[in-house]
Design goal:
Blueprint lengths: L13 H11 L27 H7 L21 E3 L21 E8 L9 H10 L2 E8 L3 H9 L7 E5 L7 H8 L4 H4 L8 H4 L3 H5 L2 E2 L2 E2 L1 E5 L6 E6 H7 L7 H11 L7 E3 L3 H7 L12 E4 L2 E4 L4 H15 L17 H5 L3 E7 L1 H10 L8 E3 L12 E2 L4 E7 L5 H14 L6 H8 L6 E4 L2 E4 L1 H6 L13 E3 L4 H15 L2 E2 L21 H9 L5 H30 L5
Parallel strand pairs: 1-18, 2-3, 2-4, 9-12, 14-19
Antiparallel strand pairs: 4-15, 5-6, 7-15, 8-12, 8-13, 10-11, 16-17
Subcellular location: Cell envelope
Protein name: Extracellular solute-binding protein
Organism: Streptomyces dubilierae
Length: 563
């Protein structure tokens, strides 16, 4: 399975894209300079970010793990890959001594699906392994932002709260700074060596965990290589003699050839995310939302010609009738799986984790089914200009009021959940108890019905190892995924603000709230390109130009992280 993969909507919205991206894989350590913190005190009003010497004083020492050697090392920001079978007898131990000291730790986290009951066999086994009684307060991941806001506004905050990057709008960043503990005294520098699996988390992921000048987050790392893939039915392509397109014009021609509405076959779902890649549009998924230097000028992605061109090309696909009708129903299309499997459409963009997910889903009932990932093309047939993903996207925070014993217990939990693939701790975290939650046949772990119910997205939310792709059931998929990341990672650039955890002044946080809906209205023909141009004009006058000056000041004082 894809380590740490949470289920996400198949519609390529910002939220589902990020959920799947952040939960699926993790990034390599870098060493790019970040901007110095600016603003006020540690009172919850601090804006800006932390970098340079200030960050170096805070960051944990990096000590690479040598417990397990990957089959495919990371390259160009990719995940590491494992393509062999599993031998439980040779699993390594990464936590030789139990670090938990007993006691209870409450954790609130988003959960996609039906949460299992507290005290189930998986939770009990994990808690016994760690030496801590973790009590889960799972909340619906689809409405998590509402619950999160209410909890952080109250005085009743759990010991640990998980906050995904896509939920960090509005007042959440300032609440993080005011409500959660500084973990620096426990993890900065050599202190992290007490927790070897945390020491092996890439440095860039820890940089993203600095909020308000303090190391507050336990990160779920992510690869910096692109993670949004144009997925397609390779089996049908081969049967029909279709060729993978290498430009936007070729894609349009292929889409028209594939589409036969009477036969209930369309070429694709909404291709907006692929359009953004093909036209080199700056990433707009997490703060800083799409800011970068272009010819020395600081611009936002929504101000660029590439952004408008990507929307126009996406609109033309809808207008040509090659997009499946489900995509017209809203920005989140209904679940793609059954209709993709039935061949109602052959191409759709989504997170790389779906490559394995769809493969496993169809393995027994549709043996001819084969999904694969297209290489992203430049819109004109040249090389693409892609943008590196952020090195961490989900974080766990510890209540500021927590005692030292509680903090140490939380870190004991994180040190187990961050164990690398190929270890006993990883197997327990991701698969549960052998014989109860999974069985192994021919080197392939298969979850039981109990495993599918109980071993879901819980402990992996506290902390995770560096990005890993491993599918013992479909090793060719893991190989294909990592190699795709490595090829696309070669074209990925880092924006001026890559890797930074930036807290914008609160007065600017809602400026682009409506832009994604407007994007979707335009590509579906409900609005026009001129409506986006008017939105940008209004955005500038309502604070966009002021926000530009704010980012410009950071750059002028501290330099760019671009490379």
């Amino acid at each position: 399975m894809t380590p740490n993969a949470a289920s996400a909507s198949s519609g390529p919205s910002r939220r589902s894209f990020l959920a799947s991206t952040a939960v699926a894989t993790a990034a390599v350590a870098g060493g790019v300079p970040l901007l110095a913190a600016c603003g006020g005190s540690d009172s919850g009003t601090r804006d800006g970010t932390t970098s340079g010497k200030d960050a170096e004083k805070i960051l944990p020492a990096f000590v690479a793990s040598n417990v397990v050697k990957p089959d495919i090392p990371s390259r160009n920001g990719s995940a590491i890959g494992f393509t062999g079978k599993l031998d439980l007898a040779t699993l390594k131990t990464s936590v030789p001594k139990q670090l938990g000291k007993g006691g209870k730790v409450t954790v609130m986290a988003p959960f996609w699906g039906s949460p299992p009951k507290q005290g189930n066999a998986y939770y009990t086994a994990m808690n016994d392994l760690i030496g801590v009684d973790v009590v889960w307060q799972n909340q619906d991941g689809n409405t998590y932002d509402q619950k999160l806001g209410a909890v952080l506004a109250s005085s009743d905050v759990p010991d640990v709260v998980v906050v995904p990057g896509w939920n960090m709008g509005g007042k959440i960043p300032s609440a993080i700074i005011s409500k959660f503990a500084d973990l620096g005294p426990y993890l900065s520098g050599d202190e992290v060596k007490r927790y070897p699996n945390l020491a092996a988390i890439p440095t860039d992921a820890w940089r993203r965990s600095i909020f308000g000048g303090k190391l507050r987050g336990l990160p779920m790392p992510a690869p910096s290589a692109p993670s949004m893939v144009p997925l397609y039915r390779q089996d049908i392509f081969e049967k029909e003699g279709y060729e993978v397109p290498k430009s936007c014009d070729e894609f349009m021609a292929l889409a028209k050839e594939i589409t036969n509405a009477r036969a209930r076959r369309w070429a694709c779902l909404d291709m907006k995310w692929t359009a953004f890649q093909a036209f080199g549009v700056l990433s707009g998924s997490e703060k800083p939302l799409g800011w970068n230097l272009v010819d020395g000028k600081l611009v936002n992605r929504i101000e660029t010609e590439e952004f408008l061109e990507a929307l126009e090309w996406s609109r033309k696909l809808f207008a040509a009738g090659v997009v499946h009708p489900d995509s017209k129903m809203g920005k989140n299309a209904p679940d793609a799986g059954p209709k993709f499997a039935a061949g109602e459409f052959l191409i759709y963009p989504n997170n790389i984790s779906q490559w394995w997910g769809r493969t496993a889903e169809q393995a027994t009932q549709n043996p001819e089914f084969k999904i694969w990932g297209m290489d992203v093309w430049g819109h004109d047939g040249g090389e693409p200009v892609l943008w590196a993903d952020q090195p961490a996207g989900i974080f766990a925070f510890v209540n500021k009021k927590a005692s030292e014993s509680v903090v140490r217990n939380v870190l004991a939990v994180a040190n187990v959940t961050a164990a690398p693939y190929g270890t006993k701790e990883y197997m327990m975290t991701n698969y549960g108890v052998e014989g109860t939650h999974y069985t192994v046949k021919d080197g392939v772990p298969v979850k039981t019905d109990k495993g599918n119910i109980e071993v879901m997205n819980a402990y992996v939310m506290v902390a995770s190892p560096a990005a890993t792709l491993a599918h013992p059931d479909f090793p060719e998929v893991a190989k294909g995924q990592v190699e795709w990341q490595q090829r696309m990672g070669a074209f990925a650039r880092k924006s001026a603000f890559w890797g930074m955890q930036i807290t914008e002044p609160a007065r600017y946080t809602n400026l682009t709230n409506d832009v994604e809906q407007l994007e979707d209205d335009i590509v579906r023909g409900r609005k026009k390109i001129g409506d986006m141009q008017q939105f940008v004009s209004d955005w500038k006058s309502k604070g966009g130009d002021e926000l530009r000056d704010w980012y410009r000041k950071l750059l002028d004082e501290n330099g760019s992280a671009a490379s």
